[in-house]
Amino acid sequence: MPVRDIINEAARNFAMAGIASPRLDAEILLAFCLDCERLDFLKNPSLPVAENALASFQKLAERRLKGEPVAYITGRKEFWSFVLDVNNSVLIPRPDTEVLVEEALILCKKPDTVEIKILDIGTGSGAIALALASEIPLARLTATDISAAALATARKNADTLKLNSQIIFLQGDLFEPVDDFFDIIVSNPPYIGEDEYEKLPVGVKNYEPPEALQAGADGLDFYRKIVAEAPGHLNNNGWLLLEIGSTQDAPVIDIFNASGQYSDISVRKDYAGLPRVIKARRKING
Ligand code: SAM
Ligand code: GLN
């Protein structure tokens, strides 16, 4: 069977199942089965696909049809300038989170002779910490997660990308395993409230780890805790940067203001024009 027919048929089935990017998903899964790049076969769509490759493609297509995200099927996801290993113990890194990386990089515009210390709370696949380490050779990162399985994945990604010498991984609840001070603290914490969680798409709700998403009744539990505890680990004038859900800007700003410990609170929008990152500076003590 030629590539063209395989892709067309799978894309039609995916579209009927309500999958948002049916053709792209079919192409990524076929490239994974053939162990090649999409472009390799898109250039030559009449290329025949061997029976055994077609059979393994059909199995993966069935998993996709049931709702499993492409990244969990292939075990990898592009983020920033690299490809990360992912599995169902880590959130699949989202493009929106690259906005958090961009904002942190703006704050890192020190002379590149100065070491900068950064903490990433809830590192998951390691996406944010690895992007920052790759961009700032003098950055020293600490990356935490409550999940041992997530940390193992993040460590593996750091090894693959040869960034392990820049990052220390610690397991524990938020700041509990951390006893250092930082210039920048970043986090994409869980931020989904109870009602919203029930309404999440099947691919998220049935496949991604609930502990990476659920954040109490109103989705703000982690903001309350992180905003309260971060000043105890920030250098004077250090920055806290938090990814937020697109409707959480007002309540999270209220949490920052109510703490009285921050100045320069601002919101950065993502590329869809939605509020996505809040940053604030720790007030100087004394
Ligand atoms: N930083 C990754 C990213 O942006 O793709 C993952 C973000 S995911 C939304 C939140 C992460 O926080 C998950 O990996 C989860 O295991 C971790 N987490 C949940 N509760 C935590 C806690 N109390 N302390 C530390 N990490 C926690
Ligand atoms: N952006 C994720 C989603 O849409 C939520 C991630 C989080 O809770 N930090 O499902």
What this model shows, in words?
The chain has 12 helices and 9 strands. The chain has a 7-stranded mixed β-sheet with strand order 5-4-3-6-7-9-8, with helices on both faces. It has a two-stranded antiparallel ribbon with strand order 1-2. The chain has 2 domains: 3-66; 85-282, 3-Layer(aba) Sandwich (Rossmann fold), CATH 3.40.50. Strand 8 and strand 9 form a beta hairpin. The protein is of the alpha/beta class. The mean pLDDT is 96. Residues 94, 188, 190-192, 204, 213 line the site of glutamine.
Task: List descriptors.
alpha/beta, Rossmann fold, 286 residues, 20% strand, 7-stranded mixed sheet, 12 helices, 2 domains, binds S-adenosylmethionine
Q: What are the bound molecules?
A: S-adenosylmethionine, glutamine
Mind telling me which CATH architecture of the largest domain this is? 3-Layer(aba) Sandwich
Distance between the termini: 73 Å
Tally of helical runs: 12
The main pleated sheet reads as: 7 strands, mixed
Strand content: 15-25%
Spans of at least 5 consecutive residues with low confidence: none
Can you write the helix and strand succession as a string?
Answer: HHHHHEEHEHEHEEHHHEHEE
Tell me the name of the CATH class of the largest domain: Alpha Beta
The total number of structural domains is 2
Helix content: 25-40%
User: Any idea what the shape is?
Assistant: elongated
Placed side by side, the strands forming the largest sheet appear as 5-4-3-6-7-9-8
Give the class from helix and strand content and strand pairing.
alpha/beta
Radius of gyration: 21 Å
Determine the CATH topology of the largest domain: Rossmann fold
In round numbers, the mean pLDDT is 96
Write the CATH homologous superfamily of the largest domain.
Answer: Vaccinia Virus protein VP39
Strand segment count: 9
